[in-house]
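Protein modeling request. Please complete all fields; requests missing the sequence field cannot be processed.
Requester role: graduate student
Desired output: 3D structure, token encoding
Chains: 1
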Amino acid sequence: MTSDWDATRYDTDQSFVAAYGTPLVDLLDPEPGERVLDLGCGTGDLTATLAERVGDAGRAVGVDRSPSMVARARTRHDGPAFVRGDLRAPPVRGADGALSNAALHWVPAADQDRVLAAVADALRPDGRFVAELGGTGNVASVVRAANAARREHGHDPADPWYFPSVGEYTMRLEDAGFEVRRAVLFDRPTDLDGTDGLASWLAQFGDPLLGELPDRDAVAAAIVERLREERFDGETWTLDYRRLRLVAVRV
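Delivered output (251 residues):
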């Protein structure tokens, strides 16, 4: 999993991530006095919204692996507890609900079952879990362009993220001790900010595609050029996001 991010860039160029996660709060439907977790909280916008809903900021806990994200979340939002931690070991037990937005696809497939078991352990019986992550086919155009650019520059293809199907992830949740109440895969074309939106997106999220390549900048530029006609209208880059949204209850 990526361990650090450019938190300032995340709040400016990638503010759409938290904005698209707002409906998850309504799906979780936290009640006053409940204790809730935001797993992979980023810079804390959804954690702050959860805190407002439960009426006691200290009962909303945001967890993120990135030190820069946690530091910025603490600066931007008074009240909620922000903890640097691993999703494989949430720092709370007996929570009433947990939310995860755009974080689980960063967990390697081999670690998914461990993470979901840890989420179940963090919840009380009948505790709710709401999550959204990239689903099968997410940003397929970017992956295709990246692997073509990698081959063009003499590198092997990359298989960077875990984007599961509905059936696959439902089974994982059930094996972890959840009853799945809702699971849906849907297309969500996503606009990026600015005429350099794709370059900024690759700078922030592209490590799994570009890694430690010695010619990283050249490969990134080649990806942008390969996608320019398909994904750029002269003003805005639009990526082919596909999201998997899930609602589950710990049994």
